[in-house]
Amino acid sequence: MFTPSSSELDCDDLIAAFTSPDLCSEEPLYFRSGQRQLFGWLHQPAQPSCSPELGVVICAPFGFEAMCMHRSARALAAAIAQTGIPALRFDYAGSGDSEDLPAASDQIETWTADIHAAVEVLRRRVDVQGIGLLGVRLGALLASLAASERPGIAALIAVAPISSGRQYLRELELAGWSRCSRQPPLLRSALPTAAASGGLEADGFLLSAASVARLAGLDLLRIGAGAADVLILDRADLPLGQRWSEHLARGGARVRYVQRADYAEMMKAPQFSVVPRDMIELICGWLCAHRRSAAAARRQPVLQGEPTTQRLQLAGGDDGAAIHEGAAIDDGAAISERPLWMGEDPMLFGIVSEPPAGEARRRGVVLLNSGGDHHIGPRRMHVSLARRWARRGYVVLRMDLAGLGDSGACPSGAAQGIFPAQAVDDIALGVQVLRERYRLGEVTLCGLCSGAYHALRAAVLGVPVERLLMVNPLQYLPAQAHRPEEQELALLLSSARGYGRAAVTLRSWQKLLCGRVNIRRAISVCARRVWLSSGGVLHEIARRLQLPLANDLGRQLRALAARDIRMVFVFSKGDGGLALLRLQAGSALKRIEPWMRLHIVEDADHDFTLTQSRAQLERILSEELYAPRTARRLPIATASAAVPAVQVPGSVP
Prior knowledge:
Strand content: 15-25%
Shape: globular
Structural class: alpha/beta
Number of strands: 20
Strand order of the largest sheet: 11-12-13-15-14-16-17-18-19-20
CATH topology of the largest domain: Rossmann fold
CATH superfamily of the largest domain: Alpha/Beta hydrolase fold, catalytic domain
CATH architecture of the largest domain: 3-Layer(aba) Sandwich
Number of helices: 24
Helix content: 25-40%
Largest sheet: 10 strands, mixed
Radius of gyration: 25 Å
Number of domains: 4
């Protein structure tokens, strides 16, 4: 068991304020729910009582919202444990690090059963007397369903509860439309998995047709609470739970209703999400005030098996396209997964997917954080890739850098965002652990956006790897990563290109004459683009004259090629990182062609949000990973979202 220090739970000081090495600990574990295994974290007081009066199961929201509040969920569980109340947070089947689900599954029914399984695990592991359920958004609706199905739930906490399943589905449709304007809200005809049969895709996460039908008929006013004591923390900007609170009060429940303004900050994109300290303190205070009532909760019979804390066994074959994956895993070999702690200060966390027993090829991959996403990757893509690659014989580590996900923070405790200064050291440790523990002869680094940047910097600084898979990097040099104004270079190039295209259209001139164009910004963007281009020309002249340059990307890429490191770049069409690569690397790109592969994927945004584009990206990365690492001249490949990007010659090594 790992007991974090006050600065190790997260780089954010707000999280550290809730933790103390003498008051709480956290432990990763696997446990069974029906036929599938789930992954979770058990947070306990460092000196738990023999029979705690109350324990709390945290029920996550759906999809991208769960990724946004991952840091806050960890802080919340730690804070609850610090008060002396054990807490369990977990991933539903088909989400996070848990086992996958068939595409046609009723997720609502399955996830409600998962909550019951989590309750029984918490009862058994800590011998808790009473149970409280804490749900956020869809998790609040699921918690209410679970509480209504079993007596004895001592307390229910609902954060921004969904009052109507039908209204929630409409909200998901509109959110998908606003974020992915190229696609219609309901992607029934475009997607090969759940959405094709009447399901729904929201921010890259799929709800099956059965789940959509089930949600459409759910209403909190008809479900009730299932607990005598209820705390409702509603959104101040969109209060939907007030009628439900009044309904519960009329039914005899003791209800406290509070509107909170910090919900929106908690649900920002993972790299911008803010831990709601005041909300967490309110929840902890309410739980402490109601702890005695949990002692009267009647013990329930054990319904599920014992949890296993070592590994997740994934059987061979696949019983349908996984709900959050772009395509079904295409091999029938059995693999396993286990949590892995690395280092001491800070303590780094990751999950290793291990190939079938008897695998003779010694190859490994390290998947790095993308932005503020934790180790499951953007839209859970790292889980899909790790299991796909493990079935092809690779040992795959999806790790959290210090200050991100479930790893500890840097020793200084200072917040460093998605570009921590010690990232290269963290990656070097992950590579070393893989090589020594699994005796690997070849290791690949893979990452999207900031993860691609960290992979490149690690290789440049000498971390021993043989291959780099880099997706949509937006910067390449250290100065760009640590100065906010430099981080906008790729976006600037993309904006300048957009202004250039707009200048030749009649509609743009009409907007200009009507005063609907920000002329000052357009001039500023284009002028800086010219300045960057002139700087690139001067760098190229200096290279040809063999003059030493500080932070010369072209020379760094040539050095990687000299070490026989295969480099793969994948860009969404129009992403600014490609223009920046060509500008800063110059003629070096031509010289390293035998060691470099470049893909351009159409109909994809920066994060590959849509399932279809993400499936295309997974195919590209897999083909490049499987390709023999031999230097040869390779053409630039252009891929659409519907057609495989490349046909790599040769068989899987």
